[in-house]
Amino acid sequence: MNQPIETDALVIGAGPVGLFQAFELGLLGIQSHIVDTLPYAGGQCIELYPDKPIYDIPGTVATTGRQLVASLLEQLKPFKPAFHLNQQVNALARQADGRFLVETSANPSSANPSFLTQTIFIAAGVGAFQPKKLTVHGLDIFAGTQLFYHLDAQADFADNFVGKQVTIVGSEDTAVEAAIQLATLPSNSITLLHRRDVFNAAPDKLEAMRSLIASGKLQLRIGQIAGFEEQQSRLTALQVTDVDGKTEPLPVEMLLVLQGLSPKLGPVAEWGLDIERKQLKVDTEQFQTNEPGIFAVGDINTYPGKKKLILCGFHEAALASFAAAALVFPDTPTLLQYTTTSTLLHQRLGVTHS
Ligand SMILES: Cc1cc2nc3c(=O)[nH]c(=O)nc-3n(C[C@H](O)[C@H](O)[C@H](O)COP(=O)(O)OP(=O)(O)OC[C@H]3O[C@@H](n4cnc5c(N)ncnc54)[C@H](O)[C@@H]3O)c2cc1C
After folding, report:
1. Domain layout of the chain by residue ranges
2. I want to staple 19 with a disulfide (CB 3.0 to 4.6 A). Which of 72, 194, 247, 254 is the partner?
3. Which CATH architecture describes the domain 133-259?
4. Bridge partner residues of 183 (DSSP)
5. How far is the CA of 12 from the centre of ligand 1 (A)?
6. Of 20, 105, 310, 316, which is best to mutate to test ligand 1, by the most ligand atoms within 8 angstroms of its C-beta?
C-alpha cells in the first residue's frame, strides 16, 4: 500500500459546512484535507438547489446555492486545502499513536487512498450523494470509460464527448443542462432519452432544450432501456423500448446517466460512533462525538435544539476548530483573535494593508 497522507485535520464532506470548517481550521493555523464522494464541492447547495435563493445567510441579503459555494471556496483559498473528490470515506480506525487511519474508496493504485490524521471533522450532511444508477444488468462495466454519472465541471471533461454519439438519460435540471451544453459541441450527435416527454428544469432551460430539438441539434427519444449491445468490449448501442412496446437499438459511444443523486448515510453509521436517528451525537461545547478527536458538524450531527441550518453549521465549525486546536497544539493555548485586528490572522489570510 502507498504511504498514507499525514495531516492534522481531515474534513469528510465538502458541503457548505465542511468548506467553512476548513476555513476556521485555517484561521487557527491547521491545514486540512477535504474528501467528498462528489466530483465537486458544495453538497446539498450544489446538488439540490444550485439556482434557488437563500435568504438567511448572515449579512447576505440573498444568494443562491451556487453563489454561496463559490464564495466559500474563494474565502478558503488562502489556506490551500487539498481536495480529494470522487471518493468516499469508507473506514476509520484509531492507531497505536492515537491518530486515525482513514481509508477512502479511491483506487488503491492511486497515489494516496488513505490518510493518517490527528483530528477528523465529519461534515457528511445527509450522507454521501450517490448517483441513481440504471438497473440494466452488466452495463456498469463501462463506468468510467463510456458510462458516466456526472458531467464533470472540469473544462476538459466535455472534450471526451466531442464528435461522439452521446446519449443522456434523465429528465431533471442536470440532464437538461448537460443536453444543452453538449448539443453545442462541434459535430456531435446528442440524444436525450427519458421514459416520458416530461422534463423538470428552469423555464429558460426547457425553452433552450426545445429549440435545440426543433433545430435538429438535439434528438429526443422517449422510451426505456431494455438492454445493450457491445462489440469487442465496447458499448455500441442501447436497446430502447418505446411506449408501444417496440424495442429498437440506439447507437451510443458515450452514455451520461443523470437521473439525480440520493444521499446514503453509508459507512458513517459503521464507525462505532454514538448515533441517534441517523445523526451523530455531539456535545455543544466542542461538537465532538463520543470519540475524542472526531468532531461532527452540520446536518450530520444532533444535540438538544439542533436546527439543520447552514448558519448553525458555521457556528459548530468555529467551536470545533478551537477544540481541535487544543489537541493539535497541546502546549500553546489558542486565544480568540479577531480577523479585523490580528496581525497573525492577516498573515494567515495573506491580507496586506496599503
Ligand atoms: C431544497 C433545500 C433548500 C434549503 N434551503 C436552506 C436555506 O435557505 N437556509 C439554510 O440555512 N439551509 C437550507 N437548506 C439546508 C442546507 O442545505 C443544509 O443545512 C446544508 O447543506 C448542510 O451542509 P453540510 O455541509 O452539513 O452537508 P451537505 O450539504 O449535505 O454536504 C455533505 C457532503 O458530504 C459528502 N459525504 C457524505 N458522506 C461522505 C463520505 N463517507 N465520504 C465522502 N463524502 C461524504 C456528501 O457527498 C456531501 O457533498 C436547504 C436544503 C434543501 C434540501
Report:
1. 5-129+262-349, 133-259
2. 72
3. 3-Layer(bba) Sandwich (3.50)
4. none
5. 12
6. 310
